[in-house]
Amino acid sequence: MLDDPGVDALVRQWTAERAHDADADEAHRIASEWLADAPTVSTPGIPGQRARAGAASWATVETADPRYLTAMRKRLPEVPHELLAAAAGWWQMVGGVAEAEEWWDAGMSPLDQRALDYRAAGLAPSDLARRLGPLTVLEHLRRGSAPAWCVARLQRQRRDGAA
Questions:
Q1: Could you give the CA distance from residue 14 to residue 51 in angstroms, rounded to a whole number?
Q2: Residue 9's pLDDT is what?
C-alpha cells in the first residue's frame, strides 16, 4: 500500500500543508492580532430603529416572528431557543405558521429543513401521506428518494387516475 502513488502524493500534500515557514507564521500572527483588535457586534439592529427606552439606544431585531417560536415551543418544549429561532427564521421566509404546522402534522419536524426542499420541489403536506406503490411519499423521502421523483410519480398517478 505504501508503493501506491496516490498514497504517496497524499502524504506529500499533507506534509507540505503542515510545514511551517517564517512567512506563513508571520501572516498568521498578523491576521490573529488584527482579528483580536476588530470590534465585535453584540446584537443585530437596524440603523434608525430606536428603542422605546430612549433615543440613545438601538432596538434589537427579533430573529424570528414570535408566533413561529410559540408554535414550535408547543411542539418541542425541550429544544434550545437558539435552535428554534433559526428554524423559525427559515419557515417564516417561505410561508405562514398554518402552513408550517401542516408540514409538522404531516410528519416533518419543525427543525427538519428538508421540508423546505420538499416544498420547493412542489410537494404539499397532504402529499406526504399518499401512496406510491407499497410506501407513502414520506417513507420514500426518508429512504432517500429525490423529491422531484416523488413529484413526478404523483403527477403521473394523478394523470393516470384522471384518464
A1: 53
A2: 72
